[in-house]
Amino acid sequence: MSTVTESQSLEAETETETEWESESESEPPKEPCLRNWLDLPRDVTASILLRLGAIEIIESAQKVCTQWRNISRDPSLWRSIDMRNAGDLHDMPYNLEIMCRHAIDRSCGGLIDINVEYFGTDDVLAYITQRTTHLRRLRLVQCWGISDEGLSEAASKFPLLEELEIYSGNTGKDAIEAVGRCSPLLKTFKYNQVAIRDPYFKDDEEALAIAQNMRGLHHLQLLGNKLTNHGLQAILDRCPYLESLDLRRCYFVNLDKDLGKRCAEQIKNLRHPSDSTHDYEFTVSSDSGFSDDDYLSSDFGNEDYGLDYEFYGSDGFDGNDGIYDNDYDYDLWFNWGDL
């Protein structure tokens, strides 16, 4: 009797479970909880926008909604301007130099850090000096339109500069000397280029300019430089505060003997010429005996590699109040369409 009762009980439980499963399968799945980004506090939204580059903010983020557009005008958002891009200037539907000037205007004189890649010119540097005297960090990547004279003139307006990074370009000894004289607070100097192996191109001019004018340096990066042991010796003699020294791909430096021993004793963080460059974002080695620097001249940088100002139009500049009278004109200029 008890056996029958237990069997009936098991059958009843099985039927109940089957009914429950069929009911739950027939129920529509619950929709995922979606976050409304417009409900975020203003400071949180500003923090998100800060993670974007200047191009992404101006081209995309400020078009999301009125709230984001208003936040994107906050000068504090533009104390640091990152104009990072892929370098395909002629394929872009906008003019990076005009966009950069617009971003600088939004800083309202509070700019302290700017990264300019591929499109930099003497005029861009001059515009920066007109809009801020507080610049502390300047990064120039393959800015062939910037000359020794242009950087030297700009350096005279950057007395608070603490870090300067240059990767490939037309600047050399004269600009290094000017920066060293005009920026006494400079602690970090990164002067990198595509390396060459041909001994014909050995040159200590830049190394000697650093040694004679940048004695307060703490960090020096010279990837692919043409200096020899003579130039390195001068840097070690005249830069007593140097803590880190990066000599990767400096093919004319030999650290096998006494000079290498001195570097090891004097420098806390030393990168040798043969050390890997996998963690550096740009090319620093050339398969041929020549580098890009030897092929490209200042004329090339100002004409062929530069922007076609007639195509984009230069009449949109406003020398008094920035580039455009208002943001509406700016949007039309880039043909971005409706928000």
List the helices and strands and how they pair.
Blueprint: H1 2-26, H2 42-50, H3 54-59, H4 66-71, E1 80-83, H5 96-106, E2 113-117, H6 122-131, E3 137-143, H7 148-155, E4 163-169, H8 173-182, E5 188-192, H9 205-213, E6 219-221, H10 229-238, E7 244-246, H11 258-266, E8 269-271, H12 292-295, H13 298-302, H14 309-312, H15 327-333
Parallel strand pairs: 1-2, 2-3, 3-4, 4-5, 5-6, 6-7, 7-8
Helix pairs in contact: 5-6, 6-7, 7-8, 8-9, 9-10
InterPro entries: F-box_dom, Leu-rich_rpt, LRR_dom_sf
Region (Disordered): 1-32
Protein name: F-box protein SKIP19-like
Keywords:
single chain; 339 residues; alpha/beta; 8-stranded parallel β-sheet; F-box_dom; F-box protein SKIP19-like
Explain this structure to me?
Residues 34-81 form the F-box domain. InterPro entries: F-box_dom, Leu-rich_rpt, LRR_dom_sf. Residues 1-32 are annotated as: Disordered. Residues 1-11 have a biased composition (Low complexity). It comes from Theobroma cacao. The protein has 339 residues and is of the alpha/beta class. It has a domain at 194-290. The protein has 15 helices and eight strands. The protein has an eight-stranded parallel beta sheet with strand order 1-2-3-4-5-6-7-8, with helices on one face. Helix 7 (148-155) packs parallel to helix 8. The N and C termini lie far apart (79 Å).
